[in-house]
Amino acid sequence: MHDSSEPPSSACPRWRILPQGDRCIVVSFGDRIDADLGRTCLAAARKLRDARWAGVTDVVPSFAAVAVHYRPDGLGNGPTCASLTDRINALLAEGIPADAVGGRDIDIPVCYGGEHGPDLADVAHAAGLSPDAIIALHSQRRSMVFMLGFAPGHAYLGVHDEPLNIPRRPSPRTAVPAGAVAVANRQTVIYPSRLPGGWNIIGATPLTLFDPARAPAALLQPGDSVRFVPIAPEEFDRIRKGQP
């Protein structure tokens, strides 16, 4: 584990270098989930990605850290954990400008409740609110895409208000349909394909979250700002049928 030296400015937060095996280094900026820390990770990831270092195969931001994947060539010419750690420390010490982050504003139509949101009533009961109040709470503010994970195009969004601090279901479902919009722990996930999952399903979107033939394949990207737009079942069917 490596602690960064005292940052030269407020634009350069503290971080820790955590080696993960012989092909990955994790740059950790904290242990909480909030928008400011998420933006720091996105900005750091972009700065590291823009460096275009030979041997680095991927740079992946998450809620509170950035994973730097690399490929040692075994001949002494590729990056090592020590050399890459030095490069990362030197680059981030230059500062992580906030304006390095730029996301899109995207509206995601959601049909809440009914067959599309089987857990809406349970979430409302747990929060002590009505189903309509949960829908309003979930859709009234934009949510930031923190990361993609678990499956291609699987977006994690938040952070929602405290009433949506609902635990995951005690028993996960073996199959959650594509497009399901689910909440837990003040976050939202949107299932891009049929997957197992234990989050509370409150609605569904008719949009396709992941399409290998599309560029980019994932509809949502880290840093995007999402507004959930309530729609009626008829609108859900119309949009779904209109997609290829």
From TrEMBL:
Domain Carboxyltransferase: 15-220
EC top class named in words: hydrolase
Molecular-function annotations in GO: 5-oxoprolinase (ATP-hydrolyzing) activity
One Pfam family of this chain: CT_C_D
Known EC number: 3.5.2.9
Record-linked InterPro entries: CT_C_D, Cyclophilin-like_dom_sf, PxpB
SMART domains documented for this protein: AHS1
Keyword entries, A-Z: ATP-binding, Hydrolase, Nucleotide-binding
Gene3D superfamilies: 3.30.1360.40, Cyclophilin-like
Top-rank taxon, per record: Bacteria
NCBIfam families attached to this UniProt entry: 5-oxoprolinase subunit PxpB (TIGR00370)
Official protein name in the record: 5-oxoprolinase subunit PxpB
Biological source species: Achromobacter spanius
Primary gene name: pxpB
